[in-house]
């Protein structure tokens, strides 16, 4: 089985100005490619898990979303990183999209992660969900994947969730935890 890092997009990989529809307005936070490269080199699959309700709201077309994803992938590739999968939910309960308003894929529901686990033969017990919102924490918990929050301080009610100011710090924590577990494993 594989291990994976599930990643939110807006607010985790890039700033979140709200409903990015123009690829020229998309850029990565400093340190993202370096952090993802370290995780990839440690054997983690990198899988994007993102709500994109701008599609159902009519703010972002599927073509525009594809162009933004293409820009994201190019920026990551320029830094030597390739995502293994991209899962997005275009739905919103108040804005039915193609006849669907209530779905199992909109975070915090676990549909996207559960599908990725199946598609990539992932062991959730050695995987992490990294994001900047409570919906990212909740999808991790709902799919038995350890959540990591990117905020300056923990969200109320989620104080036990590892919380870091950026993806670089979170990646270092994961890699240190992994190194400690490997060390303990070989000591016995």
C-alpha-based Rg, rounded: 16 Å
Largest sheet: 6 strands, parallel
Q: What is the strand tally?
A: 6
The geometry reads as: globular
Question: Distance N terminus to C terminus?
Answer: 23 Å
Helical region count?
5
Strand content: 15-25%
How would you characterize the overall build of this protein?
The structure is a single chain. This protein is α/β, with parallel strands linked by helices and 188 residues long. 36% of the residues lie in helices and 15% in strands. It has five helices and six strands, in the order βαβαβαβαββα. It has helices at residues 32-41, 62-78, 111-120, 134-142, 167-187, and strands spanning 3-7, 44-51, 85-89, 128-131, 146-150, 163-164. It has a six-stranded parallel sheet with strand order 3-2-1-4-5-6, sandwiched between helices. Helix 1 (32-41) runs parallel beside helix 5 (167-187). The radius of gyration is 16 Å and the shape is globular. The two termini are 23 Å apart. Mean pLDDT is 93; it is low at 182-188.
What distinguishing features does this structure have?
single chain; 188 residues; alpha/beta; 6-stranded parallel beta sheet; disordered C terminus
Write the layout of secondary structure elements.
Elements: E1 3-7, H1 32-41, E2 44-51, H2 62-78, E3 85-89, H3 111-120, E4 128-131, H4 134-142, E5 146-150, E6 163-164, H5 167-187
Parallel strand pairs: 1-2, 1-4, 2-3, 4-5, 5-6
Short description:
The protein has 188 residues and is α/β, with parallel strands linked by helices. 36% of the residues lie in helices and 15% in strands. It is built from 5 helices and 6 strands, in the order βαβαβαβαββα.
């Amino acid at each position: 089985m594989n291990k994976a890092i599930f990643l939110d997009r807006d607010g985790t990989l890039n700033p979140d100005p709200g409903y990015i529809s123009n690829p020229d307005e998309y850029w990565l936070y400093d340190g993202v490619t370096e952090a993802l490269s370290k995780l990839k080199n440690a054997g983690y699959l990198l899988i994007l898990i993102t709500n994109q309700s701008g599609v159902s709201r009519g703010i972002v077309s599927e073509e525009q979303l594809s162009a933004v994803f293409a820009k994201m992938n190019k920026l990551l590739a320029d830094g030597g990183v390739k995502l293994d999968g991209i899962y997005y939910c275009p739905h919103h309960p108040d804005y039915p999209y193609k006849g669907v308003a209530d779905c199992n894929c909109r975070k915090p529901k676990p549909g996207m992660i559960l599908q990725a686990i199946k598609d990539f033969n992932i062991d959730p017990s050695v995987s992490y969900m990294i994001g900047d919102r409570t919906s990212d924490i909740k999808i991790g918990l709902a799919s038995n994947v350890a959540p990591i929050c990117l905020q300056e301080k923990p969200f109320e009610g989620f104080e036990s969730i590892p919380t870091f100011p950026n993806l670089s710090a979170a990646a270092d924590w994961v890699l240190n935890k992994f190194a400690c577990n490997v060390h303990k494993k070989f000591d016995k």
